[in-house]
Here is the input.
Amino acid sequence: MGLENEEFDCDSPPSALSPAHARGYWFDHRRHECELAAAAWEVLNGARGLPWPNAPQLHNPLDWSNAYRDHGLPTEVTADGTGVELVCDDTVTALLVPAGPAGATYDRNPLAVPTLATAPPYVPLHRWAMLSRTAPLSGDAVRALAELHITVLAPGDRLRLPTGPDAGLDPPHYWHEWPRRSTSGEPHLVQLVQVANMLLTTGTPGCSLAPVDGRLEVLRKR
Here is the structure.
C-alpha cells in the first residue's frame, strides 16, 4: 500500500488516498489528465463512500439487516421492528467520536473506516460512530480516549444503523464511509488501535496506544 508521505508521479498513483491529499493532487495534476489526477478525482467524487449498489432494493428493516449481515456485521432488527441495530461482539465494535475529530480523521487518513455520520453542518455536540475490530482496552486507555470524549462500545452494546440510501427512516445519520465486505466475507475493518491512534493524534500529541499482554495500553513520549 502506498504511503501518503511518499512522492507519486502521474502514472503511479498511491493505492490509498485520503480526501485531503486527493484535493492537493487534483489541484496539482488536474490539467495533466493523468492517472494520479483520475485517482484523486474518484476520491473527491465519493469513490470511498459510494453506497451499496443494491441499496435501492432494500425496502424494510429486515432487508437492511440481512444486507448488513451479508457484509459481515452482526445486526438485529429492533424489538419494535422499525429499524436495525449493530450488536457489538468480540469481532466488531464502534468508537463514538465528537464530529470534529471524527471528520478530521476521516478526511486526513487513507484507510476506509466505516463511519456513521450526522448530516452537515457537523454540530460539535454530535458524535459519529467509527467501526473497527474489537480489542481489549486497559483502564488507562479508556481514560485517555474519554478525555477526548471518545467512547468504545463493549460487546453486547447496540448502535442504531441507517436503513435507507438517505437514512430516510433514521434521520439524521448516514454512512459517511459505507461498511465493506472483504473477499473472505468478513467485514473489512481496520484494527481498533489504528483508529484510536489516528484520533489521539488529533487531540493528544505524544500519546498513543499499543498492544501489551493482550490489551491496548497507553504509551506516552517523554
About this structure: The first helix runs from residue 19 to 29. Residues 88 and 157 are 5 Å apart (CA to CA).
